[in-house]
């Protein structure tokens, strides 16, 4: 006849060695998984900022057409300690070269996790198309601020703006 003794089951538990083995196994699994999770999260941050900048530029282009105004995109990599500041300034002057841009800004955006390498510090969207000189094709290259190998660690994103039509294209490098 089997008898069930409650006292003997209550006194049983895990020994200190068993607990230490379980904690060590969890530590080893975490140490192996952390670099992969960090790399995935960093790539996700970069991708999100690339899509955010793409939408920001697209909205500026569309509002330029809607409001029939020039929109100048200025990129400032050094003034804001939080990251790269991108501002859109508006003017009603229809001439790309003579446009004066006051303190009226349409929108501002800050890139917190990425560095931005523009081909020039300013670009202009016009209701009639892009205001670009013949030798300049706007290109923005984004890479994560912690990437030490020129995009080899987490990749790069490139945003190109076509001269005549102002078509904005986003593509992933690497």
Summed up:
It is built from two helices and nine strands. By secondary structure, it is of the alpha+beta class.
Low-confidence parts: none
Kindly report how far apart the N and C termini lie: 71 Å
Mean pLDDT: 78
Class based on secondary structure composition and strand pairing: alpha+beta
Q: How large, in whole angstroms, is the Cα Rg?
A: 27 Å
Count of separate DSSP helical elements = 2
Strand content: 25-35%
CATH architecture: 3-Layer(bab) Sandwich
Q: What does this 3D model show about the protein?
A:
It is a single chain. The protein is of the alpha+beta class. It has one domain: 3-Layer(bab) Sandwich (minor pseudopilin epsh fold), CATH 3.55.40.10. Helices cover 33% and strands 30% of the residues. The chain contains two helices and nine strands. It has helices at 6-11, 16-67; strands at residues 70-76, 84-91, 105-111, 114-118, 122-126, 129-131, 139-144, 156-161, 168-173. The strands form two sheets. A five-stranded antiparallel sheet has the order 3-2-1-5-6, with helices on one face. A four-stranded antiparallel sheet has the order 4-7-8-9, covered by helices on one side. The chain is elongated and about 95 Å long. It starts with 5 loop residues before the first helix and ends with a strand.
């Amino acid at each position: 006849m089997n008898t069930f003794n409650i006292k003997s089951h209550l006194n049983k538990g895990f020994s200190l060695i068993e607990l230490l083995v379980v904690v060590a196994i969890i530590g080893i699994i975490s140490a192996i998984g952390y670099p992969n999770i960090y790399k995935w999260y960093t790539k996700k941050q970069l991708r999100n900022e690339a899509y955010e900048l793409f939408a920001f530029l697209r909205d500026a282009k569309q509002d330029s057409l809607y409001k029939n105004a020039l929109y100048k995109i200025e990129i400032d990599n050094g003034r804001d300690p939080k990251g790269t500041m991108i501002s859109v300034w508006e003017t009603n002057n229809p001439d790309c070269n003579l446009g004066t841009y006051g303190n009226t800004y349409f929108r501002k955006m800050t890139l917190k996790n990425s560095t931005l390498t523009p081909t020039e510090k300013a670009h202009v969207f016009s209701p009639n198309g892009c205001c670009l000189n013949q030798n300049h094709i706007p290109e923005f290259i984004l890479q994560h601020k912690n990437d030490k190998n020129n995009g080899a660690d987490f990749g790069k994103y490139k945003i190109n703006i076509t001269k005549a039509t102002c078509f904005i294209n986003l593509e992933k490098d690497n």
